[in-house]
Design goal:
alpha/beta; binds ligand LXAUTJHC; single chain; 234 residues; 3-stranded antiparallel beta sheet; globular; Rossmann fold; Glc/Gal-6P_isomerase; 6-phosphogluconolactonase_DevB; 6-phosphogluconolactonase
Length: 234
């Protein structure tokens, strides 16, 4: 288990610092391998970071990004993570953003699509950005979901899972496609973005206890051989 904590005075400072980390991860990857692969959290918290990164001058056509999880909704729906990412990166001309879901949002078709897409994108991620809910979910690894144990298995044969949160979160009450824990951890850099005092309390509990089924974020924090950069601001 390992984590490095980065505390910032405000979200503007957090945004600038994390955008810098992602820029550096892409630059290193492009220099070493000629391409970069990113997995990016949805929700709301990290989007200023993505807009700041998109404003940078980069060879975007050598970079591929995908959501770390998505809601099974049509891409035209306001809750679609991939649609929100495509909007946030509108200035990043040439960047390919792969979807975990099909355009109409059907759950089973999305699962097949995500697994096929991931089979074509097997490289380790150069950076993974994760968020966390107040229920301690990360990506769409929700406590209590039936598919959670399978999605958390380190020797899982599949990289993507269909998760139905139970209960459904009121702010986004949809089945989800999520990358599994093992796929998320296959990364050169892991960045967890957490804001506010309530989420900090949840984080502290997850740091103190390795209880993946009750607090899925704790599986990430306590994963052997992983170092998680925790970025926090009020
Ligand atoms: O539903 C989701 O929630 C988490 C947390 O979102 P936040 O806006 O509270 O940071 C997010 O990381 C995940 O990608 C999303 O699908």
């Amino acid at each position: 288990m390992a984590w490095i904590e980065h505390d910032y005075a405000d979200t503007a400072a957090l945004t600038a610092a994390v955008a810098g980390h992602l820029h550096a991860a892409c630059a290193d990857a492009l220099q070493a391998r000629g391409r970069a692969l990113l997995a990016l959290a949805g929700g709301r918290t990290p989007f200023p970071i993505y807009r700041a990164l998109a404003a940078e001058s980069m060879p975007w056509s050598d970079i591929v990004a995908m959501p770390g999880d998505d809601r099974c909704v049509a891409h035209a729906h306001a809750a679609s993570n991939v649609a929100a990412l495509r909007e946030a990166f509108a200035a990043a001309d040439g960047l390919r953003i792969e979807a975990l879901t099909v355009a109409e949002g059907d759950a089973q078709a999305s699962l097949r699509h995500a697994r096929d897409m991931l089979a074509r994108n097997r490289d380790a991620f150069d950076a993974v950005v994760l968020g966390m809910g107040e229920d301690a979910h990360t990506a769409s690894l929700f406590p209590g979901a039936e598919a959670l144990p399978a999605a958390m298995t380190m020797d899982a044969r599949e990289d993507a899972f269909l998760v139905v949160p139970d209960p459904l979160p009121p702010e986004a009450p949809f089945p989800r496609i999520t990358l599994g824990l093992a796929r998320l951890l296959r990364a050169r850099g892991l960045h967890l973005i957490v804001t506010g005092a309530r989420k900090r309390d949840v984080l502290r509990a997850a740091q103190a206890t390795h209880d993946p089924l009750r607090m899925p974020i704790s599986a990430l924090l306590h994963a052997p051989d992983a170092t998680v950069h925790i970025h926090w601001s009020p």
